[in-house]
Every structure is written in structure tokens, then in C-alpha cells.
Amino acid sequence: MPGSIQVEGDYTDEKKTAMAEHEHSEKIEVFDDENTRRMEKRIVRKLDMTLMPVVWVLYFFNYMDRNNIAQAKLDSFEKDLGLVGNQFNVAISILNVGYVLMQLPSNMLLTRVRPSIYLPACAMLWSAVSACTAAANNYGQLIAIRFILGIVEAPFFPGAYYILSAWYTRKELALRIAALYSALILATAFSGLIAAGVFAGLDNTRNLAGWQWLYIIEGSASFLAAATAMFILPDFPESNSGSGKWLFSAEEKQLSVERIARDRTSSSSEDEGIKHGLRLAVMDYRTWVFSLMLCSNHSAYSFNNFFPSMLKGFNLGSQTVTLVLTAPPYLVATVIALGIALSSDRRKERGLHIAIPIVFAVIGFIITASTLDKAGRYFASFLYVGGLYGSNSVIYAWASSSLNQTPAKRACATAIVNIMSQIGNIYAPYFFRPQDAPRYVLAVILMTVFSAMSIAMVLFMKIDLRRENKGLLAQEEETGVKANLFTT
């Protein structure tokens, strides 16, 4: 993306110099010294007040800009652009094609550039592209815009996911990823509320339809947020650039590097660069198990882009009422996701915190497919929205902490997992065939099947990591070197 990425020639050298200085400096005893523990808490508090709010706001707009099409479908969007048959489904799917193509190259590049410049620059680009949707006049133009939107949006979530894992330890990560993921859920909730207001108040103002105003307003707000983020977002712990220069003292930066190095699993190896990290990620079968787990999960929540249309089929009221009623399930899901992540971090357990919520999602899908009762189907939406979104952030945290043997491997592995998960978003929109509206029974059955597949992968991984931990403990007894175990 010419013009959108700032790559400083000496940035890699700067990181190497900082690491070399760190290696020759006095080692900090993180867990033995009370002053160091207080410093660690101060570091986390500073991150929670800077890094987390910035990535949260940008991710909120990332998903808001992406999800506008679901609300636009209830306005005159399809009629104005002349969409027929499954062309709306194609428009949803094509974004994820661009999203898949860009993710891995972006995360490999991210280890070489400044995140504080790169991620906000990508956000400004996607804001502009999303706003351009308002200028689309036909199906071809819409497809082109959606494909480009996928490319420029792709770097953000895996990039944010990676930078969080570069600053936060495993015991801290699930809650932060859940907090980040709450931006997605709330964006989905508030997109319906915002669309209801825009459609009711601005439709046909200055000869623009309500859906066009929706894209313009949200794209403009997203651009301003991205421009502000450049001044607040920190770079990597070992970097001497970005807000980290004034946010952290030299001792705090040293401790930030040390605590992440200590947090890696006992199978850690030396970081030999991004190519070696890519090879480690590709050769690790757990990368592909987590990929299938998340792909199944994303396939199961493919209802997201059709949720307003599904609710419209409940005949709960007018267009405005329907859009407003899309919000409550997602608001409840936000609370569920944060609660599950907090419990997962405190109990240091991942598998059951993923599998049990998905079981509730399965129950919700079964209710949806088996009844015509409006109240019952609306209640079921709380089960499958809360269950799937509640489990998703814990999957990301589990994958990151289990594939973190080197920073380069973590960057490549998390990108691969994200890429494979997006494949589900490419084919899943076709579950919702136009002739199946408004019940979409086939789609509901398929989402149930993919939920079950996700549960199976979770149980496999839990058993596999427990077996690995037994081996590490046996090695500890032989060598006397304390093992850093996988979280199961």
C-alpha cells in the first residue's frame, strides 16, 4: 500500500541495539523483588490507559465500517445498487478475500516497522475506502470497494493482537483480548442503533439515501480517531520510539522486555528472524488446530451480517424497531465475553471457558431452527450471540500463548490463525440463501455443525497440551530447571 506504511531504515537496528543493551544490563528479578512487582503493576496500568483504549477505539471503527452493509440491507441499499440474487452475499464474502490475502504479509512486516505509524495509517485508509461506498452506483463498483476495504482493514486486528501479546503476559492477555473484542461486539450493537437514527433523520437529505449518510458519517469519525492514535500508540517494548519514549522509564522498558521473555513456554528457542519464525509456525501442528478451531467458530457466527434481516423475519415491528432490537443480544454478549475472559485468566484455564459457552450457542441454534415463536427465537439469539462471542476472545488468547516460542513465530502463527479463520467468513455468507429467508433453516443447521466442530477442536487441544505439560514436568525432574507450562 504505497504511501501508507512508514518503514524507517534504522528501525530494525534500533531494536537490535536496544536488545543488546538489555542483554548486557543487570537482570531484573521480576517475581522476587517487591519494588519490581510494583513496577510491573505500574507498567500494566500505563498500558491499560494508553495501548488498550487506542486499539479498542480503532477496532470499534474497524468493525463498524465493515458491518455497515448489514444495516444498509434494511434501507434502499440493494435497490439503489441493483443487487439481485446472491450478489449481496458476494459483496460480504469478497471483503474477506482481500482480508485473507493481506494478513500474513502485514504481520511479517509489522515486526520491521513502527506499529504507532503503520496501524493508524491503515485505519485512515480503510476509513476513506469505507466512506467511498456511498459513491457506489452498481454491483461492480461495490465489489471493487469491498475487496479493497478487506485489504486495507486486514492489518489491524492481527497487528493489534500481536502488539498486545508483545506487551502483556499470558495471565493478562485473555482479559485484554476480550476487552478488545468487546469493541467488535459493541460496534455490532451500536451500528444498529446508529443506523436507526441515520435512516430516520437523514434519509434523502441532500439527495443522499440513509445508507449513504451512514457510510460517510462513520468513515469520517473513523479517520479522525486514526489520526489521533498516532500520538498515543506505543511501539514494541524494546523500541525507543512512539509514546513509549515518554510513557515508560528505562527501568520500566527493561522490565517490559524481561517479563515477556520469562513468560514464554519452556519449549522456547532463540529468535532467528522472521523467516525462521514463519517456518516454526507452519511446522507446528497446533497452529493448524487453532486455525480450524477459529475457522469453525467464525463459520458459526456468520449470522452477524444477516442478523438484522433475521430479526426482520421475526416481525417484531418497524425498520427502526428491528434495528434497535439488534443491540440487546450484543450488549449482553459484551458482558458475557468480559466475564468469561476474567474467569479464564484468574483460573488459568482456557478449554472449558471456550467449550461451555459454545454449547449454549448450539442450544440457541437448535431453538431457532425448531420453533416459530417470536419470543423464543429472540431469546435464542442471546444464547448464540453470547456463546460464540464469549468464547472467541479466549480462543485468540489461548492461541497466542501456546504459539509464543519466539516473537517472530508468534507474529506469523497469529497471522496464520487469523487468515484461516477468515476463510470461514468467505464461504459462510452463502449459507444464507435468498430463497431461505426469513428463517434461514439451512444456515442455522450449518452453524450448529460448525459450533460442534469448534468444541471438538477445543477438547483435542486441551488433551494435547496436558500431555505436553506432563512431558515438560518429567524434563523438569531430570534437569532441575523449572518448566513454564502451557495453559490448558
UniProtKB/TrEMBL annotation:
Origin: domain of life: Eukaryota
Gene Ontology cellular component list: membrane
Principal localisation: membrane
Keyword Nucleus: no
PROSITE patterns referenced in this protein's UniProt entry, alphabetically: MFS
One example GO MF annotation: transmembrane transporter activity
UniProt-listed PANTHER family: MAJOR FACILITATOR SUPERFAMILY (MFS) PROFILE DOMAIN-CONTAINING PROTEIN, PERMEASE-RELATED
Protein name (Swiss-Prot/TrEMBL): Major facilitator superfamily transporter
